[in-house]
Amino acid sequence: MDSVKNLIGTMQGRLLPKYQGRNQAHPIGYWQKEFLVAKEIGLDCIEFILDFSGVEHNPLVRDEGIYEIQQITNKTGVQVKTICGDYFMEKPLHSSDNEVAEQSLSVLMKLLVSAKQLGVTDIVIPCVDKSSLNNKKNESRFISVIQSITNDLENLNINLSLEMDLPPEPFRKLLDKFQSKNITVNYDIGNSASLGFDSVIELDSYGDRISDIHIKDRTLGGGPVILGEGAANFDLFFDKLREFDYSGPFIMQAYRDNEGVSVFKKQLDWVSRYLVQKI
What is the mean pLDDT of residues 217-228? Predict the structure, then answer.
């Protein structure tokens, strides 16, 4: 019969009016409403966001906030299994400013504790744009920081799912430097397409290490567009993905408008042909 074996969810905020006009942000003050909308749509999970801006108001860093997340997940059945650490784009773990790097590591360690309380499996660490590993010094600092916490990750059984803008071979070589099953890959379909990467080569390089997938479409060298209207080859990607025993979630991070719900549903319907498989 037709069935879905993976969780299907949304990046936080995609089902609500934009927070401060931003396409992606933790919606301070009304984040709870999204769980009710997600339940109505039939989604399994929400990938929570930890922003740099307003981090002190984020429930992920407060004990009472963790309790509130637990209460609403119990009420709705919509889970929080993954967290997107956008905080670390603004304040990279590999910053050359030691004070910034130390503070970011402290935030990450707090986030790991919260993640364990919530039953989170993956924390996505974006190393793109301002936090890109665009030189050997950045890469060396990043490796050093991550290696210092691999024991913590393994003890807690939480993945650091790395989102990179590196080509497949350099990314694979970077992954090989971590001797831990808990250093995994976040694969963003749209970002890879925008960079002109070949998804077959990418998956051949590290497909067995992917633990979180962001569903998005972008034009080559450009920004987000409606799923199916950009450079992403969904047929090719999902055909190749079937070679791997991918058990992580599919997180909708697709194009959004000011309100979110209508355009989200349209794109969820479009991509559902790839997410439903015969098992």
Answer: 97
Residue with tokens 């089902």: 15
Range of the domain at 229: 2-278
- Give phi and psi for 80, each to the nearest 5: -115, 100
Number of domains in the chain: 1
Question: What residue has token string 């979180």?
Answer: 212
Query: What is the rounded distance in angstroms from the CA atom of residue 166 to the CA atom of residue 53?
Result: 26
End-to-end CA distance of the chain: 7
Contact present, 133 and 94 (Cβ < 8 Å): yes
Strands (DSSP E) along the chain, which ranges? Answer: 2-3, 8-11, 45-49, 82-84, 122-127, 159-164, 183-188, 210-215, 250-252, 277-278
Which tens digit of pLDDT belongs to each residue from 115-140?
999 999 999 999 999 999 989 999 99
Q: In this structure, what are the phi and psi dihedrals at residue 199, rounded to the nearest 5 degrees? A: -65, -30
Task: Determine the pLDDT at residue 5.
Answer: 75
Q: What is the CATH number of the domain that holds 27?
A: 3.20.20.150
Residue type, 2: D
- DSSP conformational letter for 6: S
**Average pLDDT in the 163-184 region?**
96
Contact (Cβ atoms closer than 8 angstroms) between residue 50 and residue 60: yes
- Quick check: 145 pLDDT over 90? yes
Find out whether 244 and 210 touch, Cβ atoms under 8 Å: yes
Summarize the confidence of residues 139-158 as an average pLDDT. Answer: 97
Task: Please choose, from the candidates 161, 157, 159, 171, the residue with its C-alpha nearest in 3D space to the C-alpha of residue 203.
Answer: 171
Length of the chain: 279
- CA-CA distance, 159 to 58, in Å (whole number)? 21
